[in-house]
Structures are given as C-alpha cells and as structure tokens.
Specification:
about 325 residues, alpha/beta, Spore Coat Polysaccharide Biosynthesis Protein SpsA, Chain A, eight-stranded mixed beta sheet, 8 strands, elongated
C-alpha cells in the first residue's frame, strides 16, 4: 500500500489544546487506517517551535504511548512558516502524502477525508479553503479579506481564504524543497509549484483553547513578508509614482511661468509647505520599501539555515495498529 499519510502540525505554546488535538487526530487516523484508505505506517507529527510551556513534554508523552505520534523539536523558536517547513522537509522521505494543519482545531479534521479523495483522483496539491468566517469578528473578517485581495493585486498568487491547511504529494514536497529562500511565505510559494491541484471547503471553527498566535501586529508583519518575498510590484509602483510626480512638476513649472509672465504671481507659503511635506513623506516611504527589499537580499546572501532540528522522535519502522 502506497498511501502513507503524515500529518504535520506546528506547535507554539499549545499545551492547553494539544491533548484534545491528539485525541481527535488519533480517532481520525485510526478510522482511516481501518477503512484501508491510508497505510498503517501513517503518522501525526507535532513540530515544537521553541515553546516556553509544556508542549514538548506532552509531545514526548504522546510519542512514548502510541506509535501513531512523532515529534520534531526545533532548537529555538523560528516562526510558524519555518516550523511548518521543517516538518514538511523532514517527513517527505517517509510519506506519500503530507497534510499540514494548525494545532488549534479551527481547521475541520473531517476535511482530511475529502483531501485524500482528491489525492487518489490524481491531485498533487489540495487546498483547504474556508467556506465561511462566521466565528471571526467583523474586524478579523475584514482584515483577512483585505489581505488576500491586496496580495493578489500586488502579483502574489494565493488561494482566497486558504491558510496552511493543505495536502501535498511526495513529488510536490520535493519540488518545494527546490525553493531555497530564507524569507518563507508558503501560501504564495505552493501555488507556484504547478502540478494538478484542487480545493476542499470547510467551515472554520472557534479556537478550542489557548490564545491566537497571530495578533494584528504579527498579521501585518506576515503580510509584509509575503508581499516583499514574492512580488516586486511595490518597487515598480515607486517608479511609477516618481514618474507621476516628475510630470506634475513639469506642469507646475509651466503654470508658474505663465503666472509670472502675466504678472499674477502671489507669494504664499501653504502650497510650498504642503509640497515639501508630501514629497518628503513619499521619499521616506519609498526609501523604506526599497530598504525592506535590500534587507531581504542581505538575509538571503547569508544563507543561514531556516531552522535547526534538535531532536526527531519517529518510530518509522513500526506500523500503527488501528483499534477496533
């Protein structure tokens, strides 16, 4: 049987929700194994992203009591995208397909069945897409929708209302491994891989326990990371803005000359002050955007590792016995 499934779940300070996540995943995986839809060697892999609570201790306990669970412990906190990448790249050697999801139980576990169906139909990538956001606040819905529209308008190809709940085949994972950039934005990189893909929709639930790891500040930083990592359109916008201001300056020069020679010049400071502040602000904004790109070039040229794995707990030679 060649349908070995590994489920990769990044964790950061998830001790409040992890036992329930493990319980539900255990029930789901055992059911899939009993039905013969996935291999008995399938696993659930928790990636500890430098948690400060008891997350790693819980993962080690789960590993010791069940062959279903595996664990990856990063040497320090590297952020969600790097933790997810660490899990994907580590398990690609053992799995035929890998599903990535968050630990907070907001992603519908039952959607895994439909993802596997799509994989068996020949899809290499299956995106989990939220059908509705009724559990989110108005502000959260508004900012999320604005985020996806902004990304697409700036040339970053993303799947609307898709986060990191997706299935990838082995060959899709090996293709992903060819992308070496340090500044990771997987929601934009995965659609660039090509291959046959499809979506499954699901209703997003409320977080089971704990606090969100993506407050507004982190969401804004995440959006900036995605835009500057995958699109040069902001740089081109600065060029267009510069050309526009140059053309306006020529028009204002002609207008001033006409006023001067017709004897209608009036001394005033308001227009000058507004012009100075406006152009000064645009210059600072432009320098900031260019600096963001230069900073990313600086990080890429260093070729520092995206993550360091301290330990990997995986009983890869033992199959999971699905309980009746």
């Amino acid at each position: 049987m060649n349908n070995c499934l590994y489920v990769v779940i990044p964790c950061y300070n998830e001790e409040a929700v992890l036992p329930e996540t493990a319980k539900r995943m255990k029930e789901k995986m055992y059911a899939l194994i009993r039905e013969g839809r996935i291999s008995p060697y399938s696993k659930v892999v928790f990636v500890n992203d430098g948690s400060k609570d008891r997350t790693w201790e819980i993962i080690k306990t789960l590993y010791e009591h069940s062959t279903l669970f595996s664990g990856i412990n990063l040497s320090r906190n590297r952020g969600h995208q790097n933790a997810l990448m660490a899990g994907l790249m580590t398990v690609k050697e053992y799995a035929d397909m890998v599903i990535s999801m968050d630990a907070d139980l907001q992603d519908d576990i039952d959607a895994i069945d439909k993802m596997i169906d799509k994989y068996l139909e020949g899809c290499d990538i299956v995106y989990g897409v939220r059908s509705k956001r009724e559990t989110d606040t108005f502000f959260k819905r508004f900012t999320a929708e604005t985020f996806y529209r902004l990304m697409n308008s700036l040339g970053v190809e993303t799947v609307f209302n898709h986060a990191d709940y997706r299935l990838m085949s082995k060959r899709a994972l090996y293709a992903l491994a060819e992308y070496k950039e340090v500044n990771l934005f997987l929601r934009g990189i995965v659609p660039m891989l090509g291959f046959k893909s499809d979506i499954v929709t699901y209703a997003r639930s409320e977080r089971f326990a704990g606090e969100s790891k993506y407050p507004l500040k982190k969401m804004l930083a995440f959006a900036m990371e995605g835009i500057t990592s995958l699109s040069v359109r902001p740089i081109r916008m600065i060029t267009g803005l510069g050309i526009g201001i140059f053309l306006i300056s020529i028009i204002m020069l002609i207008y001033s000359l006409v006023r001067f020679f017709s004897g209608q010049t009036i001394a005033g400071w308001a227009s000058i002050a507004v012009s100075v502040w406006a152009i000064g602000g645009l210059l600072l904004l432009s320098v900031g955007i260019v600096g963001e790109y230069i900073g990313k070039i600086y990080l890429e040229t260093k070729e520092r590792p995206r993550y360091i794995i301290e330990s990997f707990l995986n009983k890869k030679d033992e199959k999971t016995e699905a309980k009746k």
